[in-house]
Amino acid sequence: MKLCESEEKELLELEAQYCSYGDTVHYLDKPIIFERCEGSWLFDMHGKPYLDMQMWYSAVNFGYRNKEIDEAYNRQMTKLPQVASQYLHKEKILLAANIAKETEKRLGTKGRVHFNVGGSQSIEDSLKLIRNYKKKSLMFAFMGGYHGRTLGATEITSSFRYRKRYGHFSNRALFVPYPYCFRCFYGKNRKNCDYECIKHFEKLFETEYYGIIDTKDNEVEYAAFYIEPIQGTGGYVIPPIEYFKRLSAVLKKYNILLVDDEIQMGFYRTGKLWAIEHFDVKPDLIVFAKSLTNGLNPLSGLWAKEEFINPQIFPPGSTHSTFSSNPIGTAIGLATIEYIKKNDFEKTVKEKGNYLLSKLRELQQKYRVIGDVDGLGLALRVEMTKRDGFAPDRALTDMIFQEGMKGNIEMDGEKYGLVLDVGGYYKNVFTLAPALTITYEEIDLFVKLFEALLKRCGV
Ligand SMILES: Cc1ncc(COP(=O)(O)O)c(C=O)c1O
Fold it and tell me: Which secondary-structure segment (H or E) carries 93?
């Protein structure tokens, strides 16, 4: 047995004994140990290359080991790698100012930024901010939405599976159907539905007996609506272009805040800094994480309009976490923003996304089990179905995913693995989030590898 094989075997035995299975590692029949990464590629302990089409669920938008961003890490390590979040350091201030100014440019509103260490933690902070301002604790959120796994974030995340082991969630959100038009909740067709879903939502405000509003003074029991502009875990579902404008009009009418969760779709995944920019609405709060540091350091944050977050209303110590604005994270975050400004991702992401989408559409023409493909920028979906083009095929999706991770797809004399992520309400959607720096050759290779997997799985 080769040295790497015996080491791998030993490590997997230790993992089986000492690591919790409560995370997501064991979604794969045989967990893989990765050893190296570069650009769009991961390499296992045997040196086998895996083309990564999910980039740590969009936490590494700018490619693995991006030199310009990594340099900030090295610089900060030699200068000020540690300092309590109670004190200031330059990078924190500059990063907050940069994000606030870039957001102000886009939304026309002044705001402030508040940091934390993970997406869920910043969602918690946003919940506190809203509860403090509105003195209410109930939220609307979407069916199929995902906002994290801490207790508060779980209350506004629709899947019951995430709650069922943990008792009663008293502030469980009211979950509203997302405009998942391929499988419309109301059985309508996008072409002529006239936004029936918005009408259903607005109907809730008609009488106090629908449990939302006191029509005598128009007070609503719900403080805010949490949205993902494109659902991430829900399967990269892209709403019709006017949807959020119409939703936002209803929310404004009833004085309900709009919270935009950009944790997965922010930082140019869709070709804009914030994905919500595509839809021409102005959220009250934006929550972000993941690619803020290109996956190098857990750092997250929120942006809120001045009126919700100014120091009079949200005073010192309103929330705190030891590592919340840690100097390594903020230095990398700042380098990420500078890197973004130097590159025209608005243009390249759109072009690469359109190219990949056209290739996916060609595959859809060839294979009846691809029921739907769609994309915005480099957030793309491939929905796998039975041959009728509609009934979800979870087993096939899982088989393709598992085969991709075996690392043995032969192509042009080389062996490759393909890293795919599975999402969607029926776990039958490949949610593609390649590096925004992916090359056209790599996109072509992906299409060939994916087709090889389809054939291997008997499609
Ligand atoms: C849209 C969205 N919100 C929140 C989260 C939670 O972030 P984290 O996993 O960093 O806690 C995620 C994570 O995937 C996400 O995609």
Answer: helix 90-107
